[in-house]
Amino acid sequence: MTLELKPSNGPNNSGPFARFSVRMKFMMQPGGLGADGSSGSADIIDGKAHGDGVRRKVRDKVEKMKAAYGVTPGLAVVLVGNDPSSEIYVRSKCKLAVDAGMNSLEFRLPADSTAEELLELIGRLNRDPEVHGILVQLPLPPHLSSTLVINSIDPMKDVDGFHVSNVGMVGTGQDAIVPCTPLGCMMMLRHYHPDLRGKTALVIGHSNVVGKPMARLLLNADCTVLVAHKSSTNIPQLARLADIVVVAAGVPGLVKADWIKPGATVIDVGITRVPAPEKGVQEDGSVKTRIVGDVDFENVRRVAGAITPVPGGVGPMTIACLLANTLSACCHLHGIDDASLQLE
Ligand code: GUN
Does the C-beta of 208 come closer than 6 Å to ligand 1? Predict the structure, then answer.
């Protein structure tokens, strides 16, 4: 795998919103967990192995950056309130940033924080030269506007790629900070489809975090892109046309085997916690739970050519891409040409 962090260039990419692009090419074996190689059984795309590979590469580059430039990338993660899932995600992001050799700063604000308090913190982080990436964990408590908050982050430190200027640049095919989950999906897709041109891709779900940026990236790669969502009435028919299905709907088991074109690549972004009585009970007596995706995995894997499992598919790639975006933002803010960090 190579990981290139290239400075933007060209007239459309100069000025305050010039960006590094994160481009990663994989050279990994198809199949992973459990692929039995028999006909009618999809390659299982091992997101953990892909993510580990990216994180290793980032860690090596961070080490080189420290030695050559005396600069340590810094990631600031802000959590407002105490949503249990968000707490788990934030802990994991901070821990993996440290594992990659970065400085990790965690800020916790109470759930009843005002917009002014949150914006004041973001302003401080924007001005802090030691901070290269800022992430405000979503969802925010309902009284806070995520649009206002996200757009108050310096776009050059917006390692989520959610700021309107990054969204606009990706939408117009310019190098920009790309949202982590869609970036991870693209990296895994490119392993199976080094040339995505002309492929028909269906994205199910049109959130700002996954569906919309995913559709834009696929379009930038010259796919024919279909986007379905909760008001779509013909999703099975659309899916049967698709060489690639990316689903981020939050509906467990939504995608059925008879929707899938034989040999298609299926990327499952869904993460839903459901009761798992077969696992027994927890210490407090409540039923144990498990994470499931949006794809009827056991049946779809008999038809698809390649498929991501849940867990162990897209999830590990998302945090790996967050680290890659932070390194890229740091290079850009310090005017460091990533080529000088080449390891080979
Ligand atoms: N909540 C769920 N996914 C994400 C993400 O990718 N970024 C942020 N900031 N919050 C999230």
Answer: no
Total number of domains in the chain = 2
Is 325 near ligand 1, meaning CB less than 6 Å away?
Answer: no
Of ligand 1's listed atoms, the one at least distance from the Cα of 86 is: 1
Catalytic residue numbers read 93, 137, 160
pLDDT in tens, 105-119: 999 999 999 999 999
* Torsion of Cα atoms, 25 then 26 then 27 then 33, to 10°: -170
Q: Give the structural domain span for 83.
A: 72-161
Place of tokens 């969802």: 139
- Domain assignment present for residue 81? The answer is yes
The answer to pTM > 0.90 is no
How many degrees, rounded to 5, is the angle at CA 212 between CA 91 and CA 327? 45
**CATH number of the domain that residue 157 is part of:** 3.40.50.10860
Query: Which residue has its alpha carbon closest to ligand 1 atom 11?
Result: 138
pLDDT for 77-105, tens place per residue? 999 999 999 999 999 999 999 999 999 99
3 falls within a domain: no
Residue nearest to atom 3 of ligand 1 (CA): 138
